[in-house]
Design a protein that fits this description.
β5 and β6 form a beta hairpin. The chain is built from 7 helices and 6 strands. By secondary structure, the protein is an alpha+beta fold. Strands 1-2-3-4-6-5 form a 6-stranded mixed sheet, with helices on both faces. The two termini are 18 Å apart.
């Protein structure tokens, strides 16, 4: 990984037209800066876990939270509210409710790896780069015999996740008539055993 800033940039571009995050940050003029700021904070909090991954030129990137680790350590947790107030302005209360919805849906009964973010730069979509990166990540998850969890904010990505072994586990609706988010779970498996084909 070349650094937090280019990875945050890739993720901000990847999620610019996302059904959920495009709705959360509804002003396209400011959305890129809002997403880049939010993803930068998440990356700063999690990079120390050693589970932020990117392709050599940052065409695609993933951010994972390992079992037992908070998505936002205390330092970044303290920064979240003020940062969102600055970024979201009058929509800050809605943005905080969105985070609460994600938190409430997150499974707690089984330790797992959490795919917090996966994004491909728009200039590099359609070549399987993001799914190949995800498959490589899952090989490392499999080496630890652990399950994995994610939320899909775009229905167009469900088949991609299914191709590497995730199954739909539920859905939740965002407040104020917002979009539906799909939750997905991948059971633990032995190293080297992957579902689907055409990956990597």
């Amino acid at each position: 990984m070349s650094g937090i800033t280019p990875v945050a940039e890739t993720l901000a571009l990847a999620f610019h037209d996302d059904p959920v995050w495009g709705w959360v940050f509804s002003d396209p003029e400011h959305r890129h800066a809002q997403l880049a700021g939010m993803w930068t904070l998440l990356l700063q909090g999690s990079v120390g876990y050693g589970w932020v991954w990117a392709t050599p030129a940052d065409e695609a990137a993933t951010l994972w939270i390992p079992p037992g680790c908070p998505e936002l350590p205390e330092e970044q947790e303290m920064q979240l509210g003020p940062m969102l107030q600055e970024l979201a302005g009058p929509r800050v209360a809605l943005v905080m409710r969105v985070f609460e919805c994600f938190e409430a849906a997150h499974p707690r009964q089984t330790d797992h790896y959490y795919l917090s973010l996966l994004g491909t730069h728009p200039d590099h979509r359609g070549h399987g780069i993001g799914v190949a990166l995800l498959a490589d990540n899952l090989a490392a998850v499999d080496a630890e015999g652990a399950p994995a969890y994610l939320e899909s904010t775009n229905p167009a990505n469900l088949d991609r996740y299914r191709s590497v072994g995730f199954d739909v586990s539920g859905t939740f609706d965002l407040p104020e008539g917002g979009p539906t988010v799909t939750t997905m779970w991948r059971e633990a498996r032995h190293p080297g055993v992957h579902a689907g084909s055409g990956v990597g």
